[in-house]
Amino acid sequence: MNPTVDHSDANNKKPILKVAVPIPLFGSFDYLIPESLRQYSFTPGCRVEVPFGRRTSIGVILEQTDHSDFALNKLKPINKLIDSEAVLDTRVLDLLRWASSYYLHPIGEVVQAALPSLLRQGKPAEAAVIKVWKTTDSTSANDLEGLNRAAKQKHILQILLNSPEGLGESYLNDNHPNWRPAMKALLEKGLAGCVEQASLPEAHPISTQAPSLNDEQTQAIETISEDLSQHHIHLLHGVTGSGKTEVYLALSERVIASGKQVLVLVPEISLTPQLTQRFQQRMGCPIAVLHSGLNDQQRLSAWHAASTGHARLVIGTRSAIFTPLPELGLIVVDEEHDGSYKQQEGFRYNARDLALVRSQKENIPVVLGSATPSLESLHNVNRQRFHIHTLKQRARTQSITRIKLLDMCSQPIQEGLSAALLVKVEEHLKQGNQVILFLNRRGFSPLMMCHDCGWMTRCKRCDANMTYHKHKHQLHCHHCGAETRSPTQCGDCGSEELLAIGTGTERIEDFLTERFPDVPINRIDRDTTRRKGALEDKLQQAHAGGASILVGTQMLAKGHDFPNVTLVGVLDTDQALYSADFRAAEHLAQLIIQVSGRAGRAEKPGEVLIQTHHPDHPLLQTLLHQGYEKFAESALVERQQAGFPPHKHLVLLRCGAIKKELGLLFMHEARELANSYNAKEVEIFGPWPAPMEKRAGRFRTQTMLQANDRKALHQLLRQWLPQLQQLKSSKQIRWSIDVDPYDTF
Ligand code: ADP
Ligand code: ZN
Ligand code: ZN
């Protein structure tokens, strides 16, 4: 690496660097530029190696300045300048600074979150070098004949001849198992060669054409395209299958054709492999995909391709919002209502909200899409902050899914399934159709209980029961991750009469296997899809057609298309109807609409049955008879009455302590401090115990701040936070501040 020499005098007179160092303390740290490095330019966004305490650390320059609050002789010099060009451009740095201040999270850690891990370690900001196999200049199709007795070699050579760009290791591994011996032989014969080159995404040839768009799609695209040169926020509200993705594709094509880049955010890539594929087949430009399944090298390469402008479109999950994109022209946030945009620990940001901030800062349009927009977004439509575009029709079918409630009261129930639902399942299977049964609880049963004395399988570290996983003979705590062998005896009285209480997906699968022995049954949840490729296999089986049943958790509600499904059963809604979580109703409504959208996509009309003991519940009544919009309207009124977002803004101070008293002490001191600022516009509630008080061995308490006005909240927070850090009681516990918390647990 050759740092760039700086000839300007002005900078030579500024000997101090403000550096974001990855430690959980607020503010940046000041360092001196040593005499020996003065001739180089220290651009903000370049990495430096700095001494920190007894070790060294990799930080990012925020600013070069001649002022420090500390005496110069107290400052240490940096060890090394790592980059000649900024790895984070000024616009991303600006976004990170904004996020640090809004979410009250230390800038050093925020900057870390934006960097691929190899860059955090100080590795060069370059694409990975990979090995690529190619034919040699003299190889031709004639050489195939010489290989008639070596079928594998012939096969590999044929593929190489068809791929003049060469083939990488990962492609060969995936598509031609056991390719190495044959390749080695081809190398020895001089028919193939191996070169090292930078790994950059290639443009896939365009392999599918856009369908001719319907009026609603055309109108949305034309209206949004009227002004792509400035910041506008668009909400694309379209039922599942209405062709929202086609709108994203068309807009992306236009933006890319005008020489700009596009960023597409998705909640979870593994759940939507088709989306990435569709972009690749249609855009004809290099696409970088950023998600958690990549190894460090792959992530750096994808990031590098995006930040150098090589990739014209980037698809990524949450943290992709921080990718430097020199020519960004459009951001798309798919399934904008999805909770996985909110990071729930550490730096607790919301990528959907940061997409709005980034698009405003960069003065570009942003499109949020969903079949079930968040109440926040609908509220912003009401306030005319967002432009709304609606797609009411399904693109490929006119069929309408009928949603009905199944009253469970006094009905015979077997393993969570009412007799009425079972009759329906049987009917649909008889017609050769597929059925989805949806239950958001994995495992066999949520607890085991002693039939003789009532002892239960509690988690030692949480206020929760341990879930019984029958096939693995284990108990799992879904809150802290604890695992033990499942007991054969009561932990109290020693009785062997243990009952599995309640129903999870595993239990339903077992039951259905017995009940419908000839019907293939597929369970899709986190337990059955852990292995790489397992989800894809299962989805493929589901696509094969023929009568079958899919049992699964909310993974089934996301992204997939099940064309042969004609019946969806939602097994458990009662808990969500009466949950303490202020978003529970919204989540339930979104879930019902999302799973409903999975059924009856092809020619076959779909039917959705919702089991409940509360068929008269107003939420269900409004949702079913008047639709999601009306539901959202009334839910927004309820939020207003209860003082919850989006009408009021929330901040949660959370604390977890091994000793309960220490937590309470801190929380009471924190509350007193907060009171002392006399912030009239901010209401303070608590401290109170978290809904699940003990988790992973810590007692959890929370204090909630609520205000109509974000400014008032932030004013208070800016005084509060440094004082909280000073509290002696804060040192012995874990605490965090969550701005715009996703839930209050
Ligand atoms: P959404 O993103 O709203 O769920 P998609 O864009 O995935 O919808 O569209 C659903 C299906 O309908 C896809 O298979 C897509 O190719 C197809 N489709 C979308 N728009 C049209 C159209 N105008 N004509 C025909 N098929 C379409
Ligand atoms: Zn636990
Ligand atoms: Zn017992």
Question: What would your notes on this structure say?
Answer:
The protein is α/β, with parallel strands linked by helices. The chain folds into five domains: 7-120, 3-Layer(aba) Sandwich (GIY-YIG endonuclease); 129-198, no CATH class; 215-391, P-loop containing nucleotide triphosphate hydrolases (Rossmann fold), CATH 3.40.50; 402-445 and 502-638, P-loop containing nucleotide triphosphate hydrolases (Rossmann fold), CATH 3.40.50.300; 649-739, 2-Layer Sandwich (Alpha-Beta Plaits), CATH 3.30.70. 31% of the residues lie in helices and 23% in strands. A seven-stranded parallel beta sheet has the order 11-12-10-13-14-9-15, with helices on both faces. Strands 16-28-27-19-26-25 form a six-stranded parallel beta sheet, sandwiched between helices. A hairpin with a 4-residue loop joins strand 21 and strand 22. Helix 2 crosses helix 3 (107-114) and helix 5 packs across helix 7. The mean pLDDT is 91. The structure holds adenosine-5'-diphosphate and zinc ion (ZN) (2 copies). Residues 211, 213-214, 217, 238, 240-246, 395-396 line the site of adenosine-5'-diphosphate.
What keyword list fits this structure?
single chain, GIY-YIG endonuclease, Rossmann fold, 5 domains, seven-stranded parallel beta sheet, 21 helices, globular, binds adenosine-5'-diphosphate, binds zinc ion
CATH superfamily of the largest domain: P-loop containing nucleotide triphosphate hydrolases
Number of strands: 32
Q: What is the residue-mean pLDDT, rounded to a whole number?
A: 91
Low-pLDDT stretches are none
